[in-house]
Design a protein that fits this description.
By secondary structure, the protein is mostly helical. The chain has one domain. The protein starts with a helix and ends with a helix.
Length: 473
């Protein structure tokens, strides 16, 4: 491009900016202030995502747990809620897809060990929901937006995976996750004097303690692995600070009073007990907690544990179920009855199920997948879980870098906890758990790509040195 062409190009940009600013100023004078601010933020996000994907990912990381919620929803699943991170995620995802369409050299979906399983699962969800819409089981609008929500998580994975090219990217994203975790723990602890059950920030009226429990468990698992098995946190005070924060996070984790999260914490604790470097510390901490729990745990936590197996009186007793001679509380009993009802209804649409949101609300991931997508969808969902966990484990075994090894191990153990968390929650569709989970997956699955790039650079440097030596001769 010559000087005159470049000068004309600058004049064009200046003129376009001036005209655009005038039009924008005119529109803003005729628009509600709230809408104008929302439009400005949305436009800023579009521009940030388009020109700087890393900045967009940082925004996504901090918005995952630190964005407000509007609306309300009952325990039966009725009602409607929307979070700012839902909107941010949609804007970032669609802008990124648009960027991939314009710059074709940037691939939208790069081959990974889990891309095939993701494709199968998306296809089954579309087929089952489409059939549900045709039968009238699924509301068109509700089904469409839930499908969109499911698929957005996968796009987060592909976006992070496509962006990361070097180890520094992964380290920087981990520190951003850690900073968000720190703020979430502080906000959760600030609720202690006024709340029986702690929830994530900006959860709205009532909140969802189970969501906070699942999120804390995932990040605790990753942090413990980084602390025990990585040399990246070389400064002793840094490692001790992360350890102190992680141990502090156990308090709000317990005070969620989420029994599903507590159960999910058992395989995580056992995993670290079995690992050599973390065995003694983990066993000592767990034993200390068990010994001191009657004295240091709030009465609400102890009451929550004992209530699970307490036999009620009167009408409440008729709502309790027994399993193996053990009487369960009314909440757990209701879950069992909903599972039984789902099994009884499943033969009506055995193959592809009722479609996403085609059956009544069910707060249990495995049963929800089965009733909504049928036997085919359930098998594909298990294949997806296997592909993710198997891919993470292979990366852990094959990498030589201590930070990569620790991060992949932590995510593997965290996923193990999530698989137990799914028993009593729709974990794989909860945005505040799945956003960080698929972000971490994108980071971990980038490891082989980074190591391959590093080997290529080293080989190129070696050849260049050899050629220089031959030239000197």
């Amino acid at each position: 491009m010559n000087y005159k062409t470049l000068e004309a190009h600058h004049y064009f940009i200046l003129a376009s900016s001036f005209i655009g600013s005038m039009l924008l100023a005119f529109v803003l004078t005729k628009t509600n202030t709230i809408y104008a601010i929302a439009a400005a933020i949305g436009t800023g996000l579009v521009l940030a995502t388009f020109y700087n994907t890393k900045l967009a990912i940082y925004i996504l990381i901090f918005s995952m747990l630190l964005s407000p919620e509007f609306g309300s929803r009952t325990t039966t699943g009725s009602g409607f809620t929307i979070r700012i991170d839902d909107i941010l995620l949609a804007i970032i995802v669609f802008t990124w897809i648009g960027k991939m369409a314009i710059y074709r050299e940037l691939k939208l979906i790069r081959k990974t060990p889990m891309h095939q399983a993701i494709g199968y699962y998306m296809a089954v969800c579309v087929i089952s929901t489409g059939l549900g819409m045709l039968r009238g089981d699924v509301n068109y609008l509700t089904g469409f937006f839930f499908l969109l929500k499911y698929f957005e998580y996968f796009v987060v994975f592909f976006m992070v995976y496509s962006y990361i090219t070097k180890k520094a990217d992964i380290v920087h994203f981990y520190y951003a996750i850690l900073a968000t975790f720190f703020m979430v723990v502080l906000v959760a602890l600030s609720q202690v004097p006024n709340a029986d059950r702690l929830t994530a920030p900006f959860e709205g009226e009532g909140g969802e303690p189970n969501t906070l429990g699942g999120y804390l468990l995932l990040i605790i698992a990753v942090n413990l692995s980084i602390i025990f098995y990585s040399n990246t946190l070389q400064k002793r005070w840094t490692k001790r600070s992360v350890l102190a924060l992680t141990m502090l996070a156990v308090i709000p984790f317990l005070l969620t009073n989420s029994r599903g999260s507590w159960v999910a914490g058992i395989p995580v604790a056992i995993s670290y007990m079995l690992l050599k470097k973390s065995r003694n510390i983990t066993i000592s901490f767990v034993l200390l907690m068990l010994v001191l729990s009657p004295f240091i745990l709030p009465e609400s936590v102890i009451e929550r544990v004992t209530y699970t197996f307490r036999e009620q009186q009167g009408y409440a007793r008729s709502l309790q179920e027994e399993v193996g001679g053990i009487t369960l509380d009314t909440s757990a009993s209701e879950r069992l009855r909903s599972w039984r009802d789902a099994f009884q209804e499943l033969p009506k649409h055995m193959v592809f199920g009722f479609g996403i949101t085609g059956w009544r609300f069910l707060d249990a991931q495995y049963m929800r997948v089965l009733i909504e997508t049928g036997v085919v969808g359930f098998i594909v969902f298990l294949y997806l879980l296997y592909s993710i966990s198997n891919g993470i484990w292979k990366i852990h075994k094959n990498t030589a870098d201590s930070f990569f090894k620790a991060l992949s191990l932590g995510l593997f153990i965290g996923m193990l906890g999530i698989l137990f968390h799914c028993i009593g929650a729709n974990t794989f569709i909860i945005i505040r758990i799945m956003e960080p989970f698929y972000l971490l997956c994108g980071m971990v699955f980038s490891i082989p790509k980074i190591e391959e790039r590093m080997k290529s650079l080293e080989l190129s440097k070696t050849r260049q040195t050899q050629n220089q030596g031959k030239s000197a001769l």
